[in-house]
Amino acid sequence: MARTQLKQYVDTIIVSTDELDELAKAMEDILEYGIIEMDDNKLEATISITAALAGLVFKLSRIGGIVVGVIGLVTSLSTDLRSDLERNIRKAIKDMHDTRRFMKRNGYSKVKIEYPFMDYKNMRLITGKGEALRVLGDRWEDL
Q: Relative to the CA of 65, which of 53, 91, 126, 137 has its CA 20 to 30 Å away?
């Protein structure tokens, strides 16, 4: 099998509480149907994300492109790397939920988060816990 060409880096995104919730749900679907079950039909049927958010996070605005990218990535990985990816995406999802709860409890409407990303061909995935840098309440505040 050819060696998978992956690029890992950090990047920032700015999202609202609703977008963070939507992103967490999309990542849960990717985890369950794309990484664990590797079922492209179930993934395409269940994943729901706006085109704008998909473009911002995954660098793809169409669900079909995300599905093909995820399944292509997962099938190219060794069992150990697939387990690492699963574990890191679980961390990312938990962090998204924790950040959303923090925002709601404290009345913040947006957050600027730095996430670790992994590029594979034309798409990217969040692959770990993020670091909230700034939040928007009445005004932007550094954390």
A: 91
